Amino acid sequence: MSRGSERLGVSEDEHYRERAQRKKELVDRRIARATIDRGVIVVNTGNGKGKSSSGFGMLARSLGHGFRCGVVQFIKGSFSTGEEAFFRRFDDLVEYHVMGEGYTWETQDRGRDIVTAGAAWDIAARMMSDEQFDFVLLDELNIALAKEYVSLDALLASLAARPPRQHVVITGRGAPDALVEAADTVTEMRVVKHAFKAGIKAQHGIEL
Amino acid sequence: MSRGSERLGVSEDEHYRERAQRKKELVDRRIARATIDRGVIVVNTGNGKGKSSSGFGMLARSLGHGFRCGVVQFIKGSFSTGEEAFFRRFDDLVEYHVMGEGYTWETQDRGRDIVTAGAAWDIAARMMSDEQFDFVLLDELNIALAKEYVSLDALLASLAARPPRQHVVITGRGAPDALVEAADTVTEMRVVKHAFKAGIKAQHGIEL
After folding, report:
1. Chain A residue with minimal CA distance to B165?
2. Shortest CB distance from B49 goes to which of A104, A109, A187?
3. Which range marks the domain in which residue B192 is found?
4. Would the CB atoms of A184 and B200 count as touching at under 8 Å?
5. Percent with pLDDT over 90 in chain B
6. pLDDT in tens, B3-28
């Protein structure tokens, strides 16, 4: 209890209650103003950790609501991951595609990369045109956009024409400006520090 | 094919292969330098979306590897979420606690908030002292630290003394400097834009 509060005969607990009450009113007003109810486009970009893992967290949330979900992983794929092992178990609700044959510096074959990305894009476009899909995760698509393996115009057209309640989450560093413009929620994952730079291997359960 | 490349008789595909080869060597050298193999502390902070969902994505990854996992949600709890509905299904591998009784501005009772946070902390501390847990997610703990409901010193001591292979992920805006210092990987989720500000309700599968 602060001395000033004591002098006025008002306890710290009462101050706390008053502050909480004002905060509640503010939050309630904001919630009351947010009345639009529709599918959203979420973009996770930047150089920091958490872009893909956040996408997979939203996938888990969606499954918690019984949503029908689609996943296309555009770039990774030469190694198996924990997320793939886990989410492939729910094949009644999740259609899961890993289309990449590894990072492009692993394949060293531009022609093969373009064919692979094109096949992944065809699946993504089909999901976004199908109202059966409540949630679509296009993991590392921004990398394929930056390399022009996937057409930005085609993506923007698919997003604009998708079913109104469908959520689409797109991840990867270097999101193009026009995608940021089209999106509803965009987060830049900024590196403060990373274990890898301190010589720690990529860890199962964290990166893999 | 660029004109310069043609003149030299080197195709764009060959250039691509050379660039990819150099990139591969660089990445391989970096991977070779990262030789330390141990549990990491990951902190997701900042005002943007993706702090908790990234934590839940890493939880899914961990389950993909068959890890034994613990989750304590410190602040949320007055409403049910997709992540809770989903991850509670895996009670053979996940011990899941939702300790908050809602945001503090909902309870409006500091005494009750402190008791609730203390009970959540006791569970978190027990998990971090138990080598059976491979992965521990302390969701929104930073909020409880900022409000001094949980002791930063106690947290730092538990982190330092935890089993060497255990991963701990801590989320919430306003991570304290000493926690950033102790952590291995820290990401600031920065808001570029958010649907809520455009009047769109929190969406199942995305925020809830």
Report:
1. A203
2. A187
3. 38-198
4. yes
5. 70
6. 444 445 567 788 888 888 888 888 88
Q: How far apart are CA A105 and CA B131, in angstroms?
A: 38
- Asked if the structure places residue A206 within a domain, the reply is no
* B31 lies in the same domain as B47: no
- Asked whether residue A20 falls in the same domain as residue A96, the answer is no
Q: What is the ipTM of this complex?
A: 0.89
Q: Do A67 and B205 touch (CB under 8 A)?
A: yes
B17 contacts A110? CB cut-off 8 A? yes
Average pLDDT over residues A68-75: 94
pLDDT digits (tens, 9 = 90+) for B113-157: 888 899 999 999 999 999 999 999 999 999 999 999 999 999 999
pLDDT in tens, A159-196: 999 999 999 999 999 999 999 999 999 999 999 999 99
Identify all chain A residues contacting B133, using CB atoms and an 8 Å cutoff: none
Nearest by CB: B198 against A50, A184, A203:
A184
> Is 80 exceeded by the pLDDT of residue B206?
yes
Please list, in sequence order, all residues whose beta carbon lies within 8 angstroms of the beta carbon of residue A136, skipping any fewer than 6 positions away: A69, A70, A71, A72, A124, A127, A128, A166, A167, A168, A169
- Nearest-Cα distance to chain B for A122, in Å, is 24
Give the pair of three-digit tokens for residue A48: 């920091």
| Closest C-alpha to B192, from A140, A166, A85, A182 | A182
- Helix, strand, coil tally for chain B in percent (to 5): 50, 15, 35
All residues of chain B having their beta carbon less than 8 Å from the beta carbon of residue A203 are 37, 39-40, 167
Residue A114 and residue A55 share a domain? yes
Q: How far is CA A153 from CA A182, B97, B137, in A?
A: 11, 45, 39
* Pair B67, B168 in one domain: yes
Look at chain A and report how many structural domains it folds into.
2
Residue B105 pLDDT class (50, 70, 90 cuts):
low
> Which contiguous run of DSSP H or E holds residue B71?
strand B69-73
Smallest Cα distance from A108 to chain B, Å: 5
> Under an 8 A CB cutoff, do B110 and A83 touch?
no
Find chain B residues with C-beta within 8 A of A101's C-beta: none
